[in-house]
Amino acid sequence: MSASANIAAATSTPRRSWWRRLLRWAERVLAGFGGLTLIYLCFFDVTAIVSESMKPTLVGTPTTQRDYVLSERITYWFRAPRRWEIVGFTNPDGIHVMKRVAAFPGETIAVRAGKPLINGEPIDRPAAIASRIYYPFGKLRGGKPYTCESGYFVLGDDSRDSYDSRYTGELARDDVDGRAVLIVWPPNRMGWITP
Question: Partners of 192 in the beta sheet?
Answer without folding.
Answer: 182
